[in-house]
Amino acid sequence: MPTLALEARDTLAPVTAPPPGRALAHIPGDDGWPVIGSTLEAIADPKRFFEERAARHGLVVRANILGETGVNLLGPDANEFVLFDQQRLFSSQFGWGRFMDRVFPRGLMMMDFDEHRLNRRALSAAFKAGPMRAYLKALDAGIAARVSQWRSTRGPMLVYPAMKQLTLDLAATSFLGTGIGPDTDSVTAAFVDMVAATIAPIRKPLPGTQMRRGVRGRAHIVEWFTRQVPIRRERGGDDLFSELCRVRMEDGALLSTQAVVDHMSFFMMAAHDTLTSSLTAFVWLLAANPAWQTRLRQEISGLGLLAGETLPFERLEAMKLTEMAFKETLRIIPPVPAVPRRALRDFVFSGFHVPAGSSVAVNPLFTHHMPEVWADPRRFDPERFTDAAQASRHRFAFVPFGGGAHMCLGLNFAYMQAKCFARHLLLNATLSVAPGYTPAWKMWPIPQPKDGLQVTLTPA
Predict the structure, then answer these.
(1) What would the pLDDT profile of 166-206 be if each residue is shown by its tens digit?
(2) Are 383 and 289 in contact (CB under 8 A)?
(3) Three-state DSSP state, 126
(4) Is the sign of the CA dihedral 371, 375, 378, 380 positive or negative?
(5) Cα(401)–Cα(167) distance, rounded to whole angstroms?
(6) Pairwise CA distance, residues 458 & 460, whole Å
(7) Any idea what DSSP says for residue 76?
(8) How far apart are the C-alpha atoms of 232 and 160, rounded to whole Å?
(9) Virtual torsion, Cα 308, 309, 310, 311, nearest 10 deg
(10) Which residues contact 93 (CB under 8 A, 6 or more apart)?
């Protein structure tokens, strides 16, 4: 088991500046090439990158990625140590900051401790049962309409771009309450540029760089949402944006316009990009595993809903196999392959001293494929998520939504959307892929199939 020992400097003010590179020289690993380190290798195939280094060095590994040498703590024990963070050792704000601060500077995951707790408590009102029912109604109608269009596709369909359009449509309705209309293209392009900027090799917004495009995208999104806030406060509505415009902090004050804008920017990114990734992977794995398509279709048919009837919020709990299959999808292709933090104080983990200020990361992608945790980890097997199977595993062996205080606030929204999507898709089509077809995935910043994912939908 890992050990934790805080150093004497605990009493000092938190440190967030990176320590000198030599301060981590005792951690096994390598720094890669001059200047760029191991960035290209780690981004190209992060699963292989960390599996090879874990085999060579163990579960505490030094690596230079995106211009900084940091420490990667691998496996379920490391996930619990960093994400549960009983001693408040790790900053999410300063961990994600090096990737997100120019484009998503004040989202919920860019906050720490008491500030995070207060904002999370206030924002949770937008994810209670009442608002979720309203979101589900909008999701159901949007998914039904889009799947109906997909049924007419002849030959293999490129799932990823179709899913990207679907999730944008759904974000526009369930999150914004209305179609984005003529602003659709500019808002979409802005979010694409913002997400791409999170792993831009050049971290300054120099002319012609990804970071410059991301910063410009951020400016466009801020201006667009800022104009909308007073309108939503006056008009009201059941969508997430309107809910956030009405959220009040513990002192009774409304969230500031800037806070609403920052939280909406982050939620839109999560709802659009991470769900696009996860639902695309869901389609692939169901298409490649027809027996599970049949099992989920039987479960959905057993709900007894009439054609055209909206999926009732109360029936979501009955879709246990669908949830298991989606969880297995998130295990195989987690929407966030790695989770960064920054050490606020010195600590010791598994015998290795790590100084304050160090970049520290845990790796869901690595953990989700550890053969000592998951038998035959490449196999799609939703039975891994029966109640009994989950109870027998380390509680931090499955962390697609993070863990601890920073567990994703929208995880139930994600499960709800996946179930709603599976219901309409599987009752209207049978999915198949060409024999032997396995798409290659680009894993950063958010996983996506390099060829768009070719799946054939045969009308049911």
Answers:
(1) 988 887 778 877 656 677 778 778 888 888 888 787 889 99
(2) no
(3) helix
(4) negative
(5) 19
(6) 6
(7) H
(8) 32
(9) -120
(10) 110, 111, 112
